[in-house]
Q: What sequence folds into this?
């Protein structure tokens, strides 16, 4: 998969992970167990503009991949969340005021309408964290 990310507005940073497993008892990036692609993190860290163009290394045990961008001042409503899986011949395209993103040979996973309801007590922070919501999506074996 080829990932091209243009950061159009300042973000604190972006990160990319392959997700091999999840831990719903954690929150934010910690709920994803897998590999980190530090090229995305260091290529966007504290930069007002960035352009990342990389080949995403597929891991044979990855269930999905996740790109997250933390906006300036960590305003959650301006954060970027893109979950995707390899899909030869398909493309993920996001073009808005914050980013321009193209991932070739990939398909975006739309989990926007999914509401997790795991057994046990979980904080309000977890219930509003889109990383945690997607971790539950995987844990509940929803369609990827």
A:
């Amino acid at each position: 998969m080829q990932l091209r990310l243009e950061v159009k507005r300042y973000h604190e940073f972006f990160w990319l992970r392959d997700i091999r497993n999840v831990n719903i008892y954690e929150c934010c990036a910690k709920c994803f167990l897998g590999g980190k692609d530090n090229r995305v993190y260091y290529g966007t860290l504290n930069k007002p503009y960035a352009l990342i163009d990389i080949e995403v290394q597929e891991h044979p045990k990855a269930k999905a991949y996740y790109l997250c961008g933390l906006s300036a001042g960590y305003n959650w409503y301006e954060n970027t969340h893109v979950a995707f899986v390899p899909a030869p011949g398909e493309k993920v395209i996001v073009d808005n005021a914050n980013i321009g993103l193209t991932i070739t040979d990939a398909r975006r996973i739309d989990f926007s309408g999914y509401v997790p309801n795991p057994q046990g007590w979980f904080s309000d922070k977890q219930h509003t964290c889109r990383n945690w919501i997607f971790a539950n999506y995987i844990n509940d074996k929803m369609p990827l």
Summary: The mean pLDDT is 95. The chain has three helices and eight strands. The helical segments are 38-44, 124-128, 130-139. The two ends are 16 Å apart (CA to CA).
